[in-house]
Amino acid sequence: MARQLRKPLPCAQCNARCCRYMALKVATPQTEDDYEDMRWYLLHQGVRALVDPEGIWYLSFDNPCERIGKDGKCLQYENRPQICRDYPRKDDPCESTGTLFVHTFHTPEELDAWLRQEQATVSP
Ligand code: SF4
Ligand code: SF4
């Protein structure tokens, strides 16, 4: 079978979406205390909670990398950190597809609305 060539990324058009925030993996909230902490995180400007298709939770901070040029290109491309070189991994989608995360919460209210929905689907 012919090897499938990976589709080129539309980096020139997306204005470096993946370089405009950083996300840290966090423990999946399980208790009311965990959700209470999450609500507090979400009260801060530029903080989002993200959940990927595997159910892994992240806290994301909208703080653009200082090395994005005015044209959206990396100013230190040849010398960029390894995490930038590795992204996106293999055939994973990148930020430009809008499919990287299944949930994005910007506010405690968005989180609570989702929680109510979740509880309604598990309740008999
Ligand atoms: S989000 Fe995807 S398309 Fe956009 S700059 Fe990053 S890798 Fe390129
Ligand atoms: S170092 Fe370059 S590739 Fe990495 S996040 Fe910053 S602008 Fe993007």
Give the topology string: H per helix, E per strand.
Answer: HEHEEHEH
Strand-pairing-aware structural class: alpha+beta
Low-confidence stretches: none
Helix content: 25-40%
* Number of alpha- plus pi-helical segments: 4
Structure summary, number of beta strands: 4
Chain-averaged pLDDT: 90
- Major sheet: arrangement of strands: 1-3-2-4
Rg computed from alpha carbons, rounded to a whole number of angstroms? 17 Å
State the distance separating the first and last CA atoms: 49 Å
Question: Which cofactor or ligand species appear?
Answer: iron/sulfur cluster
Q: Assign an overall shape.
A: elongated
Largest sheet: 4 strands, antiparallel
Strand content: 5-15%
Number of domains: 1
Overview of the molecule:
The protein has 124 residues and is α+β, with helices and mostly antiparallel strands. It has one domain (11-122). The chain has helices at residues 11-14, 32-42, 82-86, 108-122; strands at residues 22-26, 47-51, 57-61, 103-105. Strands 1-3-2-4 form a 4-stranded antiparallel beta sheet. It is elongated and about 55 Å long. The termini are far apart. One iron/sulfur cluster binds at residues 16, 19, 65, 67-68, 74, 76, 80-81, 84.
